[in-house]
Amino acid sequence: MSGEEPTIQDVAGERAAALVHRARGLQSRMGSVFALGLMVSIGVGALTWYYAHIWQEHAGAPSRTPHRAAPQTDVPLPPLGRIDPPPATAAPTDAAAPAAGPAAVEIPLTQAPLQAE
Q1: I want to staple 10 with a disulfide (CB 3.0 to 4.6 A). Which of 6, 40, 63, 82 is the partner?
Q2: Into how many domains does the chain fold?
Q3: Going residue by residue through the chain (117 aa), what tens digit of pLDDT does each one get?
Q4: In this structure, is residue 5 part of a structural domain?
Q5: Concatenated DSSP letters of 14-62
Q6: Which domain range does residue 51 map to?
């Protein structure tokens, strides 16, 4: 047997392995590493900027505003008074049921027609 003859496992005209199943190249890996590094550095920079500004605002806040006396405690609310429970109602009977309005109209459900493809 020569090396060019198909073996039992090979099928004539069958495609080779897909490109997505191959190992990633160095350029692809480096691109992913650089993209990850860029996103992390942007995130760290944004958080650093945000917290630096918050820290500066809180650090300078007492010097910008005059010192005030401590606020008084909350003023107590007046009592609500007596609250009566709602009156109990009897369950409606079939004879006393209200007539169905336009919102209570029933729409009969039918089976959807089958479409041939």
Answers
A1: 6
A2: 1
A3: 455 665 567 778 888 777 777 888 999 999 999 999 999 999 999 999 999 999 988 877 665 555 566 667 788 888 988 988 888 887 666 555 555 555 666 777 787 777 765
A4: no
A5: -----GGGSPPPHHHHHHHHHHHHHHHHHHHHHHHHHHHHHHHHHHHHH
A6: 27-62
**Residue 46 to residue 41: CA distance in whole angstroms:** 8
> How far apart are alpha carbons 2 and 15 in whole angstroms?
21
Amino acid at 46: A
Whether residue 112 is contained in a domain is answered as no
> Residue 107 domain-assigned?
no
The DSSP annotation for 62-112 comes to HHHS---PPPPPPPPPPP----PPPPP-PPPPSTTPPPP-GGG------PP
- Per the document, the length of the chain is 117
